[in-house]
Amino acid sequence: MVNDQKHIDEYFETEEEIEGEGKTPPFQTPKGVHDILPHDHEFHTYIKKIVRHRSRQAGFKRISTPIFEFTEVFKRTIGEATDIVSKEMYTFEDKKGRSLTLKPEGTASICRAYIQHNMKDLPQPVELFYYEPHFRYDRPQAGRYRQFWQYGFEVIGESDPALDVQSILLAYKIFEDLGIAHTLKLQINNIGDLNSRKVYVEALRDYYFGKERYLSEEDKIRLQKNPLRVLDSKYEDTIILNQSAPKFKDFISPESQAFHEEVLEYLTDLGIEYTENNSLVRGLDYYNQTVYEFWDEKKGAQNSVGGGGRYDGLIEMLGGQPTPAIGFAMGIERVIAQMKRHKVRVPSKDDLHVFVAQLGREAKKICIPLINQLRDRGVRSMGALGKGAIKNQLKIADKFKAPYCILIGLTEVRDQTAIIRNMIKGSQRTVKMSEVVDEIIKSVGKENLDFYNPQDPIDL
Questions:
Q1: What angle do CA 285, 286, 287 make, to 5 degrees?
Q2: Dihedral (C-alpha) 295, 301, 305, 310: value to the nearest 10 degrees?
Q3: How far apart are alpha carbons 85 and 72 in whole angstroms?
Q4: pLDDT tens digit string along 390-431?
Q5: In the CATH scheme, what is the homologous superfamily, with its name and number, of domain 32-193+252-341?
Q6: What whole-number distance in Å separates Cα of residue 364 and Cα of residue 385?
Q7: Cis bond leading into 454, ω under 30°?
Q8: Which of 327, 335, 337, 324 is nearest to 307 (CA)?
Q9: Distance set, CA 277 to CA 111, 185, 288, 293 (Å)
Q10: Mind listing the pLDDT tens digit for each residue in 343-356?
Q11: CATH number for the segment(s) 354-448
Q12: Which pTM does this prediction carry?
């Protein structure tokens, strides 16, 4: 099996060298994006199944927003001082000179859709989930790509500590189903309401005054535009300086503090362990009150696999009525990396059940409708390939790891029979042609069939 992640990491290194020489790699993916090969699609399929199941259990409905939006949607909501808006967005003009941007995150688009389609008239809260690609011009590294997939959900139209906890619980249950909850630690903070933030921002400005020489050039710019972003810095000197910075908890209002304590109380009642992290602010300007992330227990913030928080002012930023909301998103590539790191195995529906081998034109005439019958009955089948000897076709079946093989040669055509070979045990038996499909189903087991009914509920 191809090691997809190793291939990706090696490609980044190779391209860095080539770019350094001023050359463009011929016929390869652009830097920061990658093909999702079949092995990783098994992870995607498994994750989709789990997030879809958990989301629907909680009453969420799926939404998909366009790949690109008007740029102002993101500038107004994410914040011009953020790295995303200032450095990482893929922005371009259409033929009429309008500025468009490939969406770097999902929440702003969903809030735009909430307003545009009058979802305020629906029963509140409106619960929506998505599983989509997003785009940021970021330096590629482990778990960080320029095209990346996210699963996320939004709860719009209600403010209640119980909703915050239910959102955290849904994320936790998904990680639990994926087999990685025990490897993650929940970090949580409350960053107060708008007035609390204004007071805190001024306190941060006062704290950093005279200490600018210890900040990176990037953090100096952040300090001017939005000091909260300095707390989110990844530069070592700034991280050390931040340890003595004023804490948000000393500035939030009594109402926000009570809200936070109620959230923590519910988490304790549910048995969900958490760490209060006073430096956690999240990377987007629209957050308020509850913010949280799930960190790798050993790598900390450097490997956050998902997080979210409350954004009660975002709908209003986009011209809607004041509407409370909370959401969560997780990076699929990071989740897959975490699953691989902890050797989580995922079930596959791509494995063959049976390979059909034939010898001669008359045998092939029988094999093609037989394969069709097997597939219609839920048996994953392939075969009737080429003109090679049976022995060579058995080698092909072995490469595909098919547990059973049906052999039809000249004798079987004449006798209207077929040979069913158990590829694992090396045993085989002859059965009547009319009984082949039923015998294969018995061997495979009805519980393992991949049966498709067009009338079943759509499951995407």
A1: 95
A2: 90
A3: 10
A4: 888 888 888 999 999 999 999 999 999 999 999 999 999 999
A5: Bira Bifunctional Protein; Domain 2 (3.30.930.10)
A6: 9
A7: no
A8: 327
A9: 28, 11, 15, 10
A10: 999 988 778 999 99
A11: 3.40.50.800
A12: 0.83
